[in-house]
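Thanks for the sequence, V.! I ran Pyrophosphate--fructose 6-phosphate 1-phosphotransferase right away. Repeating your input here for the record:
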Amino acid sequence: MPAPNVVVAQSGGPTCVINNSLRGIVETCFRLPGQFGTVFAGRFGIEGILKEELLDLSATPAEEIALLRTSPAAGGIGTCRYKLKPGQDEDFARVVEVLKAHDVGYFFYIGGNDSQDTAHKVAQLAHDRGLDLVATGVPKTIDNDLGDPEFTLLDHSPGYGSVARYMAQYIRQVNEENAGSSPADPVMVIQAMGRKIGFIPAAARLADPNREMPLQIYLAEAKVSLEQLGKNVVEALREFGRCIVVVSEGFDVGDLGASKDTFGHVQFSASQTTVAQVVTNYINSLDLPVPGKARFQIPGTDQRNAIAYASVVDLDEAYRVGCHAVAVARDDGNGYMATILRDRTRGGYSVTYDKVPLEQVAAKDRSFPERWLSSDRIDVTDEFVEYARPLIGSDWVSVPQVDGLARFARISQTLAPRRLPAYVPQTYRR
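Predicted structure:
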């Protein structure tokens, strides 16, 4: 009897290391042909499964799969923000149809909270309908909000270490600019990703663990008012003559008219007015004690795809958790997510890989710990620095180049032959 086939897909915002988890899954399955059959990828996540658009990864040369290590974002197999919601019975039935039609026995879904919810629903669906399918989740999110507040289910998500490294390096460079240009531009406002979860703006502190910069960090969770922010900046200008303000994109400045994605998450970067603009305009309306004006910068999606800033630690862990997900699927069966746990029994930084039931992480947000906020609520504590510092690594990643340009993986877009009628996902029907 032939080995069951595999479908791997990914969902949500991409990261620098998401393709390395994909590589871990694919290469591990390829190494075990007696246990895993043809490996397919859902083109653009669960949407590709609904539309029966399954990329045959065996058509991609091994060297291209290997290049996934340093290929950022989701250009290889695509991602989506399509969510399987209650009441979409036709979508659920279609997933079963497609997986059955292609003799799929293993389904791996790489993503954050909502993606793990989709993996959980597929796992339940398989169980309820008697489908011989093992659904396994693989963690991914730059927000680091997947898991529990005690960090016992998942210490950190692949993707966070790289965006934290990006933020740390970015603020180091901003400080050089601000220090040299402060007579004209005494205040630099930097908007960080993270919606209402503060792990990304908090990583700015990694740029200055000894607290030598005039740096203020405003997490959405800190609940600091715009007026208080202004007072804090004025005080810093009196003392230092300059100030760097890192503000979460979820910092409360009132209604920005922000749009939402199909997961229901606010897309601050898609708003006509940004938090950084509002904060900068407010600072410039004050009677500043030094000459010059405030300026702002918004790194945008560059935070999650700048492979030159990726953490080598993050890349390695993303790969290993992908490999471990295959072992979990093979050895433990349906309904788990592979996890990364910090091993505190040894000196220094090390991790172990384990599993957790999908129901414990599906569609659940982990908030930034209150204990990691400074007493004045415009900074983070040394305990946070101790947690996050190992994740950004100490070396620069080596990215293959051709003619001075990064060489990224090129995944064959060869699709498996269709076996079912065409289908339009329910959300897209008019």
